Amino acid sequence: MTGVTVDIARPIDSPAASDQLSTEPGPLTGFRIGVTAARKVTEQVGLLVRRGAEVEWAPALSVDPRQIDEAALRAETERLLTAPIDIFVATTGIGIKSWFAAAEGWGLLDRLLEVLAGSEILARGPKSVGALRRRGLRELWSAESECFEDVLAYLRGRDLHGVRVVVQEHGQSLSMVAHALRRQGADVSVVTVYRIAGADDPEPLFRMVELIAKRELDAVTFTAAPAVAALMEAAAVAGRRDEVISAFQADVVASCVGPVTAAAFEMWGVPTMQPERSRLAAMVKQLETELPSRRRGVVIETAGHRVVLHGDSVLVDGAEVALSPAPLAVLHALAVNPGHVVSRKELLGALPSGTAGSEHAVEMAVARLRAAIGTRLVQTVVKRGYRLSL
């Protein structure tokens, strides 16, 4: 039935169950889309159903995922206030607001703001900038990408010996970030404002894993990086992680609301789709535009040849070409923007999980790709990377 939504978590009082909005074919009619959000799910499911999609809903996180241990946070705050802070890294707007609100209740806010004002403040993105400025604090630098890697890159190369750095966590452990800064000599403290909690009932997520592994979904939406981690953890527990990764690399679109969420897929070598603006409506609009064209297959005219990509199927001038996962992943990455140079680092991130993590692996994958589809179709751009010929 057109426009039907299947809620696999709460069949009676779910937002999806009350949102059978459209019986007219829409741009997403015939597509089955998984939704992992716990918050704003009514809005997201409604947007998809109105466009004709069939929706499978499995919350990856708790409806109220941000859990604060006030006693531990207060103890850490009091400890931080015993000495000046040299560098403070703010990572989330909600984390900063929650921390300041708690400190205000303890009567420690003025002292906390005073100590932070004397530090070099770095912000991971605009939301944390907004939260800081509402309390009269000004950042020295902010990462436009909202990715923590850019914060580390900003600090890379600096001598941090004897420098006291405080990092506000964003719901997931930043132990590796702290380790990286300690290797530069910094004295690092991590403030855990809240922890992200998993879904109260994990069973729907396990069903979602099955649907992805069997490639019975056309796309799955993600609005938070911890949701990606929760799904991959469920896939690992179910013994189907490799199948899930393979499905995302070929037939199931991982649709992310923004770069921070998309970055959570990088370690798995999963290509993602994200809108230019990190907004829910923009993500759904992109699905509306992209999914129908993907079903028809991506057609590329390159170097006098016609290449058609559809999942893991590749046709060159009408002839099917068999590609192993690594060269197929390289071809998909190059095909996103034909003629555009893709760096070896980016291609390495696109390679399947388990592939040797070096640029030599990229070179081998490119060599196999050229052997299969022709050497003229993939160009080497010296010191920059590779691209599909035009």
Q: Could you characterize the architecture of this molecule?
A:
This protein is α/β, with parallel strands linked by helices and 390 residues long. It has 3 domains: 5-64 and 199-295, Rossmann fold, CATH 3.40.50; 69-193, Rossmann fold (3-Layer(aba) Sandwich); 297-388, Winged helix-like DNA-binding domain superfamily/Winged helix DNA-binding domain (Arc Repressor Mutant, subunit A, Orthogonal Bundle). The protein is built from 15 helices and 19 strands. The strands form 5 sheets. Strands 1-3-2-11-12-13 form a 6-stranded parallel beta sheet, with helices on both faces. The protein has a 5-stranded parallel beta sheet with strand order 7-6-5-8-9, with helices on both faces. Strand 16 and strand 17 (319-321) form a beta hairpin. Helix 2 crosses helix 3, helix 8 (203-213) crosses helix 9 and helix 14 (344-350) packs across helix 15. The longest helix has 17 residues, at 280-296. The two termini are 43 Å apart.
> What's the main sheet like?
6 strands, parallel
Taking strands numbered 1, 2, ... along the chain, how are they ordered across the largest sheet? Answer: 1-3-2-11-12-13
How many structural domains can be distinguished in the coordinates?
3
Overall mean confidence score, pLDDT = 87
Structural class: alpha/beta
Q: What's the total helix number? A: 15
